[in-house]
Design goal:
- With 243 residues, this protein is α/β, with parallel strands linked by helices.
- The protein has ten helices and six strands.
- Strands 3-2-1-4-5-6 form a six-stranded parallel sheet, with helices on both faces.
- Helix 9 links the parallel strand 4 and strand 5.
- Helix 1 crosses helix 2 and helix 5 packs parallel to helix 10.
């Protein structure tokens, strides 16, 4: 039987790429280095693809490293790849840029609407301080927040989803059947969500279902199944309201 959005007690969210416009934030934070190197050929799409490769590699190599330090190393690697001038100061500034990444325009209203019908939980690939800064832009109080810093690894490591399910049971008395995992990234979220038996909602902001724009997210060769497909959080909230 096909389930409806209203069947789920909790929506678990990825944050960056789903609620926060991390691609715009990353691109903006790369501008000082790109300008220093006078590289007019480093376009947004090229830069984001480079970021995706180095971020996923760094997170896999140093799973216990907090996210600002991950970003610092990623920036240095991106600068080397594009032969941009070395600058430890620019590396550190990029590492501290999460607080400046904007929320998508539809995020706060959508979360406030969904809040009436579901518990809301975050499973994010950042540190606690970074998410606290972003949380001020999201417009709601979440029922629980779990970060990579709490887990000691980064999605798509299976440990993050094991941790999520254990904490949902212990903290909120919820089981896998109660959960709808909601995210943009196939790589970071949906492959593991399905592997752990969770229903999932794909927020396909990049229109990947119709194109091949991977942006700041690593590629997935075989797309996992998705139970719901929306192109924005606003679209998901409207669908929930109709139900």
């Amino acid at each position: 039987m096909t389930r409806k959005l209203s069947d789920f007690r909790v929506l678990t969210f990825d944050c960056y790429g789903t609620l926060i416009d991390w691609e715009s934030g990353i691109w903006d934070a790369l501008q000082p280095a790109i300008a220093a190197g006078a590289r007019d050929d480093v376009t947004r799409s090229v830069a984001l693809e480079c970021f995706a490769r180095h971020e996923s590699r760094q997170e896999a190599e140093t799973p216990a490293m907090i996210y600002p330090d991950v970003l610092t190393r990623v920036h240095a690697a991106v600068a080397r790849e594009f032969e941009l001038p070395d600058s430890a100061e620019r590396d550190r500034s990029f590492g501290a840029s999460v607080e400046h990444w904007p929320a998508f325009p539809d995020t706060a209203d959508a979360l406030r609407s969904l809040r009436h019908r579901h518990k809301l939980v975050i499973l994010s690939n950042v540190d606690r301080a970074g998410f606290d800064a972003s949380n001020r832009k999201l417009g709601v109080q979440f029922d629980a927040i779990y970060t990579a810093e709490d887990v000691g690894s980064y999605k798509p490591d299976p440990r993050n989803f094991v941790y999520l399910l254990e904490r949902l049971h212990a903290d909120l008395g919820l089981g896998p059947e109660d959960v709808l995992h909601t995210a943009q990234s196939l790589f970071h979220d949906h492959v593991q969500a399905k592997a752990h038996g969770l229903a999932n909602a794909w927020i396909d902001r990049q229109q990947l279902s119709q194109s091949q724009r991977w942006g700041a997210t690593a590629r997935v060769e075989q797309r996992p199944e998705t139970d719901f497909l929306f192109h924005s959080m606003g679209e998901m909230a409207e669908a929930a309201s109709r139900q």
